[in-house]
Design goal:
Blueprint (H helix, E strand, L loop, with lengths): L18 E3 L2 E3 L5 E2 L10 H13 L1 H4 L12 H4 L5 H10 L1 E3 L2 E3 L6 H4 L2 H13 L15 H12 L2
Antiparallel strand pairs: 1-2, 2-3, 4-5
Length: about 160
Amino acid sequence: MCVGSSAMAEAPGDPKAVKSTDGKYFDAKGDPTYNVGPDGKVDWYTFSGYRRYHAECHVCHGPNGGGSTYAPALKDSVKRFDYAEFAGIVIGGRQNGNSVMPAFADNKNASCYIDDLYVYLRALSTGAIEPGRPGKKEDRPEAFAKAETECMSQK
């Protein structure tokens, strides 16, 4: 995802989880966010984001959202724009000078997990989690399994 700051971008705001529904956490703006327990246990969506990021995004954007010579550090980019802009770029793609982020609308390993990717990068961006595979995670919520099955089976 080749992103830069934009005059129209809205900062994501405080990532503190204020609401939880079916194992998914939300901030005060209603955007998806992470939840990390005092023992370092991450919510399922953050763990899923780690998995999806390293399956689809790290080749260009580097391990753990750290960037590369080819694409920017997404853990820094998510500090500058909110969930809606992030999702729009992943789904629709973006060109920024000579850099091109392809659209991932047809890639279900990305499009079905937009929330997960966002919360994982958000957790990295704030230092709530360390780089690398989270050591502890919450159990997979039934709502996640249902949404995953529905999204992955769509044509």
